[in-house]
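Q: Okay, next protein. This is Short-chain collagen C4-like from Dreissena polymorpha. I've checked the sequence twice, so it should be correct. Can you predict the 3D structure?
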Amino acid sequence: MYLDTNAALNSTVRKQNVFTYIRYIRWGRKACPNITTTSLVYTGQAASGHYGQPGSAEYLCLPNDPQFYDVESAEQGARSLIYGSEYETPTTAFTTLNSMEVPCALCLSRGKTTIMIPARTSCYSGWTLECRGYLMSSEASQPGKNYVCMDINAEALDASHGNLDQALFYLVEGRCSALKCPPYVH
């Protein structure tokens, strides 16, 4: 399976005559922040490998309008598998989203650098806040995935409540040891 999203990104860049830009994924939202220098490339759904299987470790934002080359209708044996992601948050800030699918948006920010600063609720001097959220990843006993910043105002992909438990997002919390406490907390 091959997803060609570079064409959409390049088309957006050409239309806006933009040559200095940064792209980032806004996890948990279907739109980009309402900032004049930021535009939506595409909206999609979060996906990754199955939480209980080794293999691909990175969360991806798959577009809602995929295009494929030579799709085979039958399942094949030696393949990497990708699954839609769900919030796994039964007792946290996202309780109402527990077991719901996770949307995402690929955003294009013109003329600036965009970075995620984990463990901060505000920007350092000289930086402008683009979005804020909670650090999330796979559960500690599951194969590792990348850390993402899930938007503080996260939403569901749609009204479905699948609870399929395939690729899951959990809130991250610190553990004091080599991680110095304070300033961090256990």
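A: Here is a summary of the prediction. Helices lie at 6-15. The longest helix spans residues 6-15.
Q: Noted. On to the next one.
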